[in-house]
Design goal:
Elements lengths: L13 H12 L2 E8 L2 H5 L2 H14 L4 E2 L13 E7 L11 E4 L3 E3 L7 H10 L9 E3 L4 E3 L6 H4 L17 H6 L4 H9 L2 H11 L11 H9 L7 E6 L8 H8 L1 H15 L3 E6 L4 H16 L15 E6 L9 H8 L23 E5 H13 L1 H5 L9 E8 L5 E6 L4 H8 L15 E6 L5 E4 L9 H6 L8 E6 L4 H15 L5 H18 L5 H17 L3 H5 L2 H9 L1 H9 L15 E2 L9 H5 L5 E2 L7 E2 L10 H4 L5 E2 L2
Parallel strand pairs: 1-3, 2-3, 8-9, 8-11, 9-10, 12-16
Antiparallel strand pairs: 1-4, 4-5, 6-7, 12-13, 14-15, 14-16, 17-20, 18-19
Length: 641
């Protein structure tokens, strides 16, 4: 352990840097934080920010757009206008937070900036129309402390994502950033770092749930003068955006986690592998690496210890399979991203044949918190075998979509009905009778049904019902959703993303997709279901990598939990949810039809017949099941479309 004079280099005296930043921040009177995560940026957040700067200037108020730790000339009472990463409540974006008032404005447009400046910044009042209204109580919620979506979460990894400026290393330092890395390099041995992570019980957040401390210890024990650390930011699951949000909102937490991992295993070089479809995450991570190097926190002679660490940011190859660790390493090496058989594991022979640790973004962002607060504090949340929290991307037929973080062990009911605000029907109305299923873990996961609403969500309990946490995608589905169509969607995704290396995955996914098409299009019989189950089991057992082994999960979980719905497709040639066009049976209810002839004018093939003011009928031999007639009927007389 090294204990040198902390004045040798500025990077050692992090507390002094934090104090300087705090002193500068205290000169300001208010802070306007505009959510600049991908979702809000797409909704016009940057235009909102520009409008705020324009209106504040017009009002003659002093403003600061970049608060520097060494800046002692901040005008007293100035307004600090800054960006943040994802604030979580994506459905209500663009979001604007006013501190220290604790006000959260939702769905803010550039035209709203003038009113906010005049009412809130000048007159110190609240613009009620921009506050979130809780549909359960009709009450206006002033800020996150009042909004059920936030109140029922436990945001730890995401705590700073919607608060600090992700492009300001000084603010991260002010929040205690890099003190855990300094502790690891200066005050702890490599074995001690591994031991702390092991004691915490941290398990990989990328889907597998492998104990992180054990992975690090196995790599530490490997001989070799060269080792690597890799951050897996190749998040490819449909509907998942957890890792993206962490990289966009708090990239320095990921870098600090990589530094601690490097210290633990003895690595001096690392790669941050970011999905190419995440340009904002790539931009902010690259800037964070550059800023950390310029601040003396990364690079040579870390914290005066003589050790070094160089990090490279690499954009992914655009393939889902590159999220698998051996395929990812092949991609980094400039090869085609294809998985390799294990063993040897990356801890033994990884990048360029050297011992390598690969962790996902959320795992690495959790590591500094463990060293900073201790393993015992980390274990206070979650379950004994799955401690801590997990981020989820909550999407689909749910009132409140967005990025959430909850302790392991929380139930699906709490997430969907409380945090999510309930399930919505196809008209967007919340109804208590509409829940059907949740697809968890993306293509690698499975379906959870109504009987699983009170199942604790953790690694082991989900495995027991044929599902998995995966990367953390949660897609809620209502009763109007056809589960065969859902299984087909994920199967088509995995079939397209299969690298083709092993026959079982390459051909098996193609055959499963064809069998699902037979079910959806009315060609299936009993042998179809038998063959589908057999192929799924074979692909799961014989595929080389995690993509192939988990590709059948959506099919198997649908066969297990929604057999009656599948049987209706196969034996009755009927889709109970009305989602399969080939099985639709359009019909006009004579008791409701007024003979207005509107539907006949909408039908492109003349399949609807009947006299005016008399009930009409549909000629099944002509009908192409296009569905144009039903929306046109004001009397809701057309069903089965």
């Amino acid at each position: 352990m090294i204990r040198e004079n902390d004045t040798l280099t500025p990077s050692l005296n992090l507390e002094a840097l934090a104090g300087q930043y705090t002193a500068a921040a205290q000169q300001t009177s208010r802070r306007v934080i505009i959510c600049a995560g991908t979702g809000c940026v797409a909704g016009g957040a940057l235009k909102v920010r520009a409008a705020f700067l324009d209106q504040i200037a017009k009002a003659g108020l002093p403003v600061v757009v970049e608060l520097k730790a060494e800046d002692h000339e901040v005008e007293a009472g100035a307004t600090h206008v800054s960006k943040s990463g994802c604030q979580g409540f994506c459905q209500m974006g663009p979001l604007v937070t006013i501190e220290p008032d604790g006000i959260l404005y939702t769905r803010v447009k550039p035209a709203d900036a003038e009113e906010i400046v005049q009412v809130t910044l000048i007159r110190k009042q609240v613009v009620d129309r921009l506050l979130y209204v809780d549909p359960a109580t009709n009450a206006h919620c002033r800020g996150t402390a009042d909004i059920p979506f936030y109140v029922r979460q436990r945001r730890t990894v995401l705590k700073q994502c919607g608060r600090i400026d992700p492009e300001d290393v000084n603010e991260y330092i002010q929040q205690g950033g890099y003190t855990a890395a300094r502790q690891a390099f200066r005050d702890m041995t490599r074995a001690a770092v591994c031991e702390q992570i092991t004691l915490s019980g941290l398990r990989g957040r990328g889907g597998g749930g492998f104990p992180t401390g054990r992975k690090w210890e196995l790599t530490r024990q490997q001989p070799g003068v060269k080792k690597y650390v890799i951050c897996n930011g190749d998040e490819g699951d449909p509907g998942a955006f957890m890792d993206r949000s962490v990289m966009e909102g708090n990239p320095h937490s990921v870098i600090e986690g990589m530094m601690i991992a490097a210290r633990a295993i003895g690595a001096d070089e690392g790669y941050i592998y970011v999905r190419a479809e995440y340009p904002l995450a790539v931009q902010r991570v690259r800037r964070a690496v550059r800023d950390a190097e310029e601040a003396g926190l990364l690079g040579e002679n870390l914290f005066g210890t003589g050790q070094s660490l160089r990090l490279h940011v690499m954009e992914g190859a655009g393939a889902f399979v590159c999220g698998e660790e051996t395929a990812l390493m092949a991609s980094v090496e400039g090869k085609r991203g294809m998985p390799k058989p294990k063993p040897p594991f990356p801890a033994q022979r990884g990048l360029w044949g050297m011992p390598t640790v690969i962790n996902n973004v959320e795992t690495l962002a959790t590591v500094p918190l463990i060293l900073r607060h201790g393993p015992a504090a980390f274990r206070e949340l979650g379950t004994p075998k799955s401690p801590g929290t997990k981020t989820f991307a909550l999407t689909g037929h749910v009132a409140n979509t967005g990025l959430i973080e909850v302790p392991f062990g929380v139930t699906l009911r709490q997430i969907v009905l409380e945090i999510g605000g309930g399930v919505i029907d196809d008209q967007g109305q919340v109804t208590g009778e509409c829940f059907k299923a949740v697809q968890i873990g993306g293509p690698s996961g499975g379906c959870l049904t109504e009987e699983h609403l009170d199942l604790p969500l953790d690694f082991d309990s989900l495995q027991g019902v044929g599902a998995m946490i995966g990367s953390g995608g949660l897609v809620v589905m209502n009763r109007q959703t056809c589960m065969v169509q859902v299984a087909r969607f994920f199967m088509q995704f995995t079939q397209n993303e299969s690298c083709g290396k092993c026959v079982l995955c390459r051909e098996g996914t193609k055959q499963m997709l064809a069998l699902l098409d037979d079910i959806i299009e009315g060609r299936a019989d009993e042998s179809t279901l038998t063959l589908l189950s057999q192929v799924a089991q074979t692909v799961r057992k014989g595929s080389l990598c995690g993509l192939g082994k988990t590709a059948p999960n959506p099919v198997l979980s649908t066969l297990r939990h929604f057999r009656a719905e599948i049987d209706a497709h196969v034996y009755q040639k009927r889709c109970p949810a009305g989602g399969c066009k080939a099985l639709a049976r359009p019909e006009i209810l004579a008791e409701l039809c007024k003979g207005c002839t509107v539907c006949t004018k909408k039908c492109p093939v003349g399949a609807i017949q009947g006299e005016r003011k008399q009930p009409h009928r549909i000629d099944a031999t002509k009908c192409i099941k296009c569905g144009a007639c039903a929306p046109a009927c004001r009397f809701h007389a057309i069903v089965g479309v």
